[in-house]
């Protein structure tokens, strides 16, 4: 069995044949290192949620002012703190959304990376996915699989053209028709039709989802792939809601 001995970029890299005993010892060493890495990541993940909880409570109390700082930025600039404003608010937001608003148990949250919850949060807020289903997905799937499942890959121009060419069949029996008093009246037949409460909720959900996706897409601390797909999904939603504004030739 041949193997590359040495790190990538750190130290010498030597390719040579290993004896069965050497190969077995190497596999055992790497397995133990992998277990150590995973254990350290679990501890770090739990610590991030502890940090998010503390930051949320600190933010709620405007803690920086109690400590003599004029503004949050001055407190964040401390050497002992040293986190960016966007990272601060991202942790505060995800804790608020999951632990405070949706009352997800702290033990459950500590099993999931906050970054994964940012990916599924737009779908949760819009009502596309139930909370428990999204949590299960975030716990079981990697970021790449989550992005593929939760970020819509739709070409806005193509979606616009599809909507323009699609023939919608209205069920007249379920719609209150406003009949013009004068046959020559130019008033549209559907002029008095009002959106239902469900329509309002659906539109609100889509707007909230688009805003959440835009926030993720504009976050300087988010991964480039997350930002790109979040912006693409937000644009697709906005195109669906406001095709006359976005237009077919929007880049």
What's the gist of this structure?
With 251 residues, the chain is mostly helical.
Q: What are the SSEs and their pairings?
A:
Layout: E1 2-5, E2 14-17, H1 20-60, H2 63-66, H3 72-76, H4 85-101, H5 106-109, H6 114-126, H7 131-140, H8 143-150, H9 156-165, H10 197-218, H11 224-241, H12 243-246
Antiparallel strand pairs: 1-2
Order of helices and strands: EEHHHHHHHHHHHH
Count structural domains.
2
Classification by helices and strands: mainly alpha
**Poorly predicted regions:** 167-195, 247-251
Query: What would you call the shape?
Result: globular
Describe the structure.
The protein has 251 residues and is mainly α. It folds into two domains: 19-104, no CATH class; 112-168 and 190-251, no CATH class. Helices cover 62% and strands 3% of the residues. The chain has twelve helices and two strands, in the order E-E-H-H-H-H-H-H-H-H-H-H-H-H. A two-stranded antiparallel ribbon has the order 1-2. Strand 1 (2-5) and strand 2 (14-17) form a beta hairpin. Helix 6 (114-126) runs antiparallel to helix 7 (131-140) and helix 6 packs parallel to helix 8. The chain is globular and about 70 Å long. The relative contact order is 0.08. The model is unreliable at 167-195 and 247-251 (pLDDT under 50).
């Amino acid at each position: 069995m041949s193997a590359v001995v040495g790190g990538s970029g750190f130290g010498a890299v030597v390719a040579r044949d290993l004896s069965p005993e050497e190969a077995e010892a190497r596999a055992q060493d790497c397995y133990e290192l992998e277990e150590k890495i995973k254990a350290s990541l679990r501890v770090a993940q739990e610590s991030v949620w502890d940090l998010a909880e503390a930051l949320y409570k600190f933010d709620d109390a405007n803690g920086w002012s109690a400590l003599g700082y004029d503004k949050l930025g001055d407190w964040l600039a401390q050497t002992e703190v040293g986190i960016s404003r966007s990272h601060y608010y991202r942790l505060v937001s995800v804790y608020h959304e999951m632990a405070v608003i949706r009352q997800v148990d702290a033990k459950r949250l500590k099993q999931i990376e906050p970054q994964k919850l940012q990916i599924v949060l737009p779908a949760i807020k819009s009502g596309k996915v139930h909370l428990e289903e999204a949590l299960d997905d975030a716990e079981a799937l990697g970021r790449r699989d989550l992005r593929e499942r939760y970020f819509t890959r739709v070409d806005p121009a193509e979606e616009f053209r599809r909507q323009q060419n699609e023939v919608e069949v209205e069920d007249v029996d379920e719609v209150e028709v406003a009949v013009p008093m004068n046959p020559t009246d130019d008033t549209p037949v559907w002029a008095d039709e009002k959106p239902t409460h469900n329509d309002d909720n659906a539109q609100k959900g889509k707007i909230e989802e688009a805003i959440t996706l835009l926030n993720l897409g504009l976050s300087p601390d988010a991964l480039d792939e997350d930002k790109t797909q979040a912006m693409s999904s937000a644009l697709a939603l906005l195109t669906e809601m406001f095709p006359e504004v976005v237009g077919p030739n929007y880049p």
